[in-house]
Design brief:
Number of strands: 8
Strand content: 35-45%
Order of helices and strands: EHEEEEHEEEHH
CATH class: Mainly Beta
Helix content: 25-40%
Radius of gyration: 16 Å
Shape: globular
Number of domains: 1
CATH superfamily: Hypothetical Protein Pfu-838710-001
CATH topology: Hypothetical Protein Pfu-838710-001
Strand order of the largest sheet: 1-5-4-3-2-6-7-8
CATH architecture: Beta Barrel
Number of helices: 4
Largest sheet: 8 strands, antiparallel, barrel
Distance between the termini: 38 Å
Structural class: alpha+beta
Amino acid sequence: MPDLIEIKAKSNQQEKVRNILLSNKAIFKGTDHQIDTYFNVPNGRLKLREGNIENHLIHYHRSNQKGPKHSLVTLYKSTPESSLKKILSDSIGVLIIVDKKRGIYFIDNVKFHIDIVNDLGTFIEIEAIDSDGSISKEKLLEQCQSYISLLEIKEEDLVSNSYSDMLLEKSRIS
């Protein structure tokens, strides 16, 4: 079960962020068109990510707070075109769907997302990931804060909620 510290921030500086990442030897994994289907669950969050690069059923617990936050994540590798989405939709119901285009970059154990989210706008995410229990939470937090500084992310641009929460809130207002 991966352990991670992550941030999400609004960004209209995506090209600048991309250039900073590449100048720091980030590995570009590609651009993924992802459909995240969130399901109604009593604990944590459950989403099915369908993309051309990443396909997972993801369950996670994370608090809604601005700045770096700890997440406990369980991943299940799914296959495109499986019946998993229908089974989950029919049994527990769909909460909301997030449609985004995501540029995926890595520097060592740190994953960066440059996102364009339908109906929400443009964002940057940083995930400092410990996939095998060898990196302390303090080190993950240090990595995350270091990249916040490097990418010149301002505190007022940090976002506390998930894209699903933002879309749910937007649908309540309209």
